[in-house]
Amino acid sequence: MIDQKDILSTLEMIEQQELDIRTITMGISLFDCVSDDADTCATRVYDKITRYAENLVRTGNDIESEFGIPIVNKRISVTPISLISQGCGGYVKFAQAMDKAAKEVGVDFIGGYSAFVQKMATEKEGQFIDTIPEALAGTDLVCSSVNVATTRAGINMDAVKKMGFVMKESARLTAKKSGIGASKFVVFANAVEDNPFMAGAFHGTGEGDCVINVGVSGPGVVKAALEGRQGRPFDEIARVIKRTAFQITRMGQLVAREASKRLQVPFGIVDLSLAPTPAQNDSVAHILEEMGLEVCGTHGTTAALALLNDAVKKGGIMASSHVGGLSGAFIPVSEDAGMINAVKKGSLSLEKLEAMTCVCSVGLDMIALPGDIPDYVLSAIIADEMAIGVVNSKTTAVRCVPVPGKKVGDTVIFGGLLGSAPIMDYNHYSPEAFVARGGRIPAPLHSQRN
Amino acid sequence: MRAIISVLGQDKPGIIAHVSAVLYECNVNILDMDQTVMRDEIFVMTMLVDLDGMTKAFSELQEKLDSVSAQIGMQVKLQREELFNSMHKV
Questions:
Q1: pTM score of the predicted model
Q2: Pair A202, A111: CB distance under 8 Å
Q3: Does A26 lie in the same domain as A132?
């Protein structure tokens, strides 16, 4: 029998350190739903999602029960709707069909109301993007993303300019719910096709008909493993994180294989992300503080996060046959008790978060901003973040919520896994003329690798 | 299929009797067992069991063990063995 101390250590991870499977996400291709009639196409979308994901939630619950490991979310990602709807229009009908199907099968979120315009947008893609705020306001579970930049294509600044408006409008149309529409919308550089996490999940064009991707988590386990190691060198810290990430990922791989087998759907990837929640013992910021920073955001934070992100990947990559998605450490402000505390204490600023995104797996995530922030400032924030992704050949993203009626110093409560956040300030010198230029920022020299 | 049953809590008479009675009722074979008392107060028992000959569904066994848990006031968990092997064995 396996050693009793190993059994107890697993139980402690689950019960006291919030170890869980963050999501089982079923990716579903919608290419075979295409029609020249929007109603027909939307009906096919609904039918296919409900047919394929019929047993997803029950299977997730069964696995959770048999292995005694919490599976927090069951989600669906679909082929980007802009790719299947251009021949028929009626875009919002697709969001409604997705929402209805997601509710029917009982999942937490469905992602894929998405478009890819990193170089240019077609006229119809432009029309599709215009519907995003309405689609998000009129649904509960639908998530949307737009990829506006890649290392190969550069940055589509016309799209970036539009994204500021879409973000703000998504918040405005959901003002009664603290602008929650914007929390379901993310702007990407170098978006990945197999990300199981929301709001940015979609089922990429290179994927098969249906796939199971799993996202693991476990910031609390990493923090607990680092406790009692004050004064020890970073080599030891890196080794401990790698070992912990290996264990977490093996658990994710096991659950992914089991879900794949039971649902008779191919296994795609395990995403090795450290995804925090607002719960105590589930914070990425607290890991950084455990390394010796008084409060997250102080000098040294970027280096600490770089070590963490790298060690998570190195430890996890050996534990899974296919690693993918975003894989690294997430730093969403509203979803991380330590990040919220750091902002409240004045230690963590928007600028420091931007620096941190250079070395972690995603970008500016769940940041609450004043409701009256100009569209062009949001666009400029997005442009900066896209530049980091493009130049560093990595995924970056922006998910900010300009909360209607709120100003700097206020707090917004989104609830659930989205948590709460202090409204953060931004640089008030104007980038309006910069954003107004439009056009494309060329791809960097190192994109020419052929 | 094999599973690990873990029992944690204040030591008292009858713990093994309660758990093994449920296992016998469901025709579950005990393959191995380990028990210790941590810090002189917390009783810990772990059991490796074979569920292949089980006459009830996994969920039914779980419900019965939940009843035992409530009855003896201790944490009783049933988890498939692969979880522990995957995390602790290379």
A1: 0.95
A2: yes
A3: yes
